[in-house]
């Protein structure tokens, strides 16, 4: 490793203080006629949650509200106290035999539990990385028939509604109180719209079948919206657009800088985020034939900077050491706080962030890929300017952020460009020729991130780049004659010419689409930073790359990446290619899960406690590992 | 009782469903060196609250937050479990000896408690009817010094603040989160402004000494504002104005009718209420040298209709049977919801109502007059178009509303007028002449409510009105010669001429200021309705008027009423005049108490449970008692 300078690392990423590992208990569920399963859940979780989280179907028509009395289970080992509701569902003999309602039975120690056969099958939806989510949205509609008030029954409108929904402890604000009386007097049958514990509306008549939510993936580059039918769990419509904040900068740091230089920029960035979210809301509602007023909740997964900007929070402290967020999570947000004109009192859930550089998008992605539910050794890698890496190993969940720099975004690469028509996304090199895959099947214009990785991997395989990352000379012995002509100089720098753009002579350097020595170094530093991240995480757990059962490549870039090329350049551990999975837009999947299930939302919140953040920048062994990882495997 | 028709009663007033009497426990406090006192409080109350409510001073510098550990008491009879905080304040021997922190010691059974001598004397203010209120406002300011964040301490701004205020469970909304970071970065010393559990602001520097609130008495006729210094409990400035809703009607029923006839009226009435409250807020702040932003909470006492109108709630259901309110109380109101521009996130407390016609003004009045703290037999009478009556007797608290009609407002009286310059407020009749007290020392123009009562009382005493309420003829034997000329006819109706207005000939009926037979009947019906109310309340408790220890006359009308005249016409029980007390503006005093003390606010809420509403309109004995009470005592 001779002449390689160890680069100045960008400012270190935020360490999250080391939290105590949460207490977990072991529950063995023995479903009637099915195989028993042992799960580990935080102490205090209900048996209902523990089963639902782990995809074990539980009878229930009230969604765990304690009203349907169907979620019967029998505790056969370990003890669960009798709750207030149990005596209404079971006789004394049954209680003594261990029968409990699962939704009010809290597991404080290890248990063995019999689950009777299902009478009704709960609704579920498949989202994320093969995750089965049992429907229990924060949004619920409850249709009730109210008796007319009389002189003998002068309960207020609010009391009348509360009495009709005795299982809910509703928060009822002034605006909905204003509408309440009108609905009551229009129709004795009304439908209460409740999100969490907030009464959002009371609609005349029975509207219980119509309830929708919108899940947003608020990316730095792209914003995606999915309209979900919360009664069935099915997606109704999807739309996306480029983040209109782009003119303020391609990445989070340049957008933060913009707010530091111009006092009006924050307001404008916030307005742009709002307009993007609102435009997408309009599109998916129009597309799905849904009235905007039927959308009662939105969920947003985004990195800390995107969320700060969308909420009008000054992002400056995120951009300068010591990288402090205003808040980790936000209670009591309305869709209006994010500029989304759906139901005027619709609520909003914004994914909590682990840190300024391990944001809500990563928490959502970890949720969607079930990083907390799987005891196998798994790596989750979200590649971007800042690369977030999660390692799940048994009970441990670790996170780190690696400063990969802008190589993958195309900005730092001479001929780099965004993944758009004309961008090279795949490169194959034979002895004779170079074959390019171009987005949109047009003439090549530039090189996308995935094309960059592919190109360097192919060049290393062809011997055009040596293990230290140096472009070989055109007259080097290993260079096939058909390729030698592509090894040229631009100025004094060696380059490899992939193609000549349309309208240029083959010999005109102005028309070359090439990779330069410096481009290869940029990629080399980026992949080394990422590989150092997962290497140190694995080493910390006494693991090697061979132990890794699965690598999830997340984010829009990760999804396009060729697993073979990623292994080839050492960006991910050298495991069987089948174990490398493009997880797709996991942040968006996480946002959908949060809309579909309060339990998943609780699991996301629990991740804040469970994930241990590993700070790389102050590690003595970082530079050694970084240098080790610079090489391109032979 | 010959020819008197029993009037058609106005629509009946709302019965509140009979609540179970709350459990109460007995606590005997034995203060060091002072006389011991037994009090009765709701089960579960803390010893701190029980003592504070009853004016027994308790050492405390944190106001019962569990942080100062000064409110030490020793339970010598009965048991109070050891709380989580007690072991931090006491050793094991002390705990065994019964020492507890009063603010976390809940009385679930009867107790005897020793109170050690005071080290610091808590701040207190005298308000209401001689009520001593120990300062514990919902508004609190907490000055904290924050450490600078570092790479090793990247807690979010919100976490940093929460950790600095470990005794509070703050609700932190998005707008204050936006301001948080700015304050933190301006000054490491910041002052958190907290109202209840809501973080209202974080101000740079130490501003802990400046905190204010405004108490509003939102009357149908008059609106009064008092600016209170919440650090000291002292009133800083007072202002009042006529309710600008008057053009929509003098009383609540006409204003409700206005909203039923014109769909825009509610919006206009709400805007008028807001402008009145906001104008007064501006006046008291200017007068007191207080920045509007230093006002962090307002409290409003008003009847149900005034509160509905001010909050933009449709009042129509209050005006038609079965008289249903939209809500009894309101959580989470901001001053902005009432149109009051003080601190933009200032909170608002609106007194809860017992019923559509026993509103928050009466609850505030009952609080201010300590109706729940006194075991004597006491009557509270708030005279108006609707007359609210409370009876406290031992542990019982009863309420009723008597439909008095408009006699006292002047509207139904031929020469009636509002209590304004030119209004006769007192009348004395000798054998020879009639002596008038006129507001503003000008020539008489009309008759105010208090003057009406005075006049009829004096006429009854002089034999000009017989016990049945009939005006005697001018030639009746009992009429003194000096007064006979005043007994005249207007049309076919007998009248008694009190004066001739300026600019008229004595013989010109157009200039007469008189009381007609019909006026006397109006008053007679009104006072009979009121007297029937308290008679039935007393009878229901097996009491007679002789048992009444105190009569409190509340409201602006009641405050001007001559106790002697009120007894004379039978409006109040015939008790020693010293026992009849003008309680003044008790609703406004109650609003002040709510600002000064969360405990008083809790007591107001408890009144909703404790007061038993007695419906008069469906009582079989109502008409009998009403006829009994029509006579003017001889």
From TrEMBL, chains A, B:
Range of residues in the leader sequence: none
Entries under InterPro entries matching the protein: 2Fe-2S_ferredoxin-like_sf, 2Fe-2S_ferredoxin-type, Beta-grasp_dom_sf, Corrinoid_activation_enz, Raco-like_middle, Raco-like_middle_sf, RACo_C, RACo_linker
Taxonomic superkingdom: Bacteria
Pfam families: Fer2, RACo_C_ter, RACo_linker, Raco_middle
2Fe-2S ferredoxin-type domain location: 25-119
Region Disordered, residue ranges: 1-25
GO molecular function, one term: iron-sulfur cluster binding
Biased composition (Pro residues): 1-20
Descriptive protein name: 2Fe-2S ferredoxin-type domain-containing protein
Organism: Pseudonocardia hydrocarbonoxydans
